[in-house]
UniProtKB/TrEMBL annotation:
Transmembrane segments: none annotated. Residues 1-23 form the signal peptide. This is Exopolygalacturonase. GO terms for molecular function: polygalacturonase activity. It comes from the Eukaryota. The lineage of its organism: Eukaryota, Viridiplantae, Streptophyta, Embryophyta, Tracheophyta. Its main location: secreted. Pfam families: Glyco_hydro_28. SMART domains: PbH1.
Amino acid sequence: MTSKFALGILGVCLLIFSRITNAQDNQYYGSPSKVFNVMSYGAVADNKTDNSQAFLKAWNDACQWKGRSRLLIPKGTYMLNTLTFQGHCKGSMTFVIEGVLKAPRDPSLFNPNTWIGFLYVNGLVVKGGGYLDGQGASAWPYNDCSKNPHCMSFPTTMRFDFVTNSEIHHVKSINSKNTHFHLFACNNINMTNLRLSAPANSPNTDGIKIGSSTNIKISRTIIQTGDDCISMLSGSRNIDISDVTCGPGHGISIGSLGKSSGELVEGINVRNVTFIGTQNGVRIKTWAPSLSSVVSNIFFSDIHMQNVNNPIFIDQQYCPHTTCDSGKSSSQVEIRNVKFKRIWGTSSSKVALSLKCSASVPCTNVELEDINLTYHGHHGGPATSSCSNVIGASHGTQFPPNCI
């Protein structure tokens, strides 16, 4: 009797819980889905009319719909000035790009940081198979601050700030003026089936830049650009990167770090990645001199290098500017618990593995397992390795010979 009574009580509780859950779901999904077509708000796909206000009106109406909203951008070419799509929305939001969105060529028309932005949105989906065209050629001559003292700040193509529980997939971004996608203060974002491209000589055109964000997944993506394919800045935690092809570009980078005190990057997993003709492969970079910060629990595995200049690279003397005094100063960024596993292919420089750690804060618990990199260049001879201030261990195949 007692067990039957307990089961009965449990059944009633489950029924009540189910009804409460369904009521909560109906708050967002009980209403029928509704399509908000930008053409109904006056958008014109003529490759010249500024459609910013039409898009914004469509978004505002969709954001107020208590259900599943789909903002639809049909096929065609739409010019857009800078705009930000802001929450908090009353239901789920899907931003469907079937057409081509074009940025103005004139950089002066932009908010300095963003072309298309999403702010304070939960449950956002961006998809559709369409294109974002940043028309960046007009900006690139003024975008390289390492060479041009009069350089300007140019906008990210698509920026996500305080966006949570969201997906970005099947979107193409070409010729960004600056970074293609930038995530800041985001949580639980899944990015997949993206195609990001800009010429190899386009400065600062990072593919995906991540800062102060957690639980980010990037997969099945091709990135061809002029800077880092993926860059993880301070506050990047629990980042999972898989099945990515990178090149041209500067590789997948953690950092640079150490400009501010207390910066942190941890829990990075990069696997099943191919680098083709990139400047770097997998890289951790910190400024010297720098302030105290931490990089920890980093895992690089199953990575194929094809003619990469610096396949495996820890650089704690990073300084792209000629005014730095890194040779006389040490980084204060602590790097610990880093593993490089099953990395193979060809290096375009003789030093295929370079671990340049800080003299004052050496790298600790660095592991090398099954490394097989050969030199493919004009100077002949085998690939070599270079290590300084590294505490760690090696296992399995080690070519070039281990230097830890």
